[in-house]
Amino acid sequence: MATMQDKQLHPDTTFSLTDVTFRVPGRTLLHPLSITFPVGKVTGLIGHNGSGKSTLLKMLGRHQKPSEGEILLNSQPLDSWSSKAFARQVAYLPQQLPAAEGMTVRELVAIGRYPWHGALGRFGVADRELVDEAISLVGLKAVRASPGGQLVRRRAPAGVDCHAGGAG
């Protein structure tokens, strides 16, 4: 069985942000941020409510455009990627997903396979194996059959290398 780690599907996938800001009228939700997410590492976003964590993730997932600054994926501007090519590089699962009520963790993770065969395509054995491996890699194997909506708060698995930084 080929694994995600064996295949090195996207060994160099990384985001790089330069002076990224997000504002709404009368308020700055994300102050200028410049960061490159390290390849092959898990990065934790830690901050108070309203500090811009969800806004940053929405920008990385192309659900919101920054007010200023530049976001690159693999050294290319986000808006230069076709939807399909972007979806094959980035899986984004928002914090609030009303349509997911009743879906299991495994079913939610499986959504990330759609860019390879479309919503009406058939899931094969290889897809199921990759979904199971992704679940194992992030330490959620024990809850893969649990409803995804109930996983409001999970701890990072022991041994995950986390880096916290920022201007506070």
TrEMBL record:
Coarse class of the protein's main subcellular location: membrane
Q: Has the keyword Nucleotidyltransferase been applied to this entry? A: no
Domain of life the protein comes from: Bacteria
Q: Output one GO MF annotation.
A: ATP hydrolysis activity
Q: What is its EC number?
A: 3.6.3.34
- The answer to whether UniProt assigns keyword Ion transport to this entry is yes
Checking Pfam families in the record gives:
ABC_tran
Q: Which InterPro entries match?
A: ABC_transporter-like_ATP-bd (IPR003439), P-loop_NTPase (IPR027417), Siderophore_ABC-ATPase (IPR051535)
Instruction: List residues of the ABC transporter domain.
Output: 30-146
What keywords appear on the UniProt entry?
ATP-binding, Cell membrane, Hydrolase, Ion transport, Membrane, Nucleotide-binding, Transport
PANTHER family registered for this protein in UniProt: IRON(3+)-HYDROXAMATE IMPORT ATP-BINDING PROTEIN FHUC
Q: What's this protein's name? A: Iron(3+)-hydroxamate import ATP-binding protein FhuC
Specify the species.
Answer: Cedecea neteri
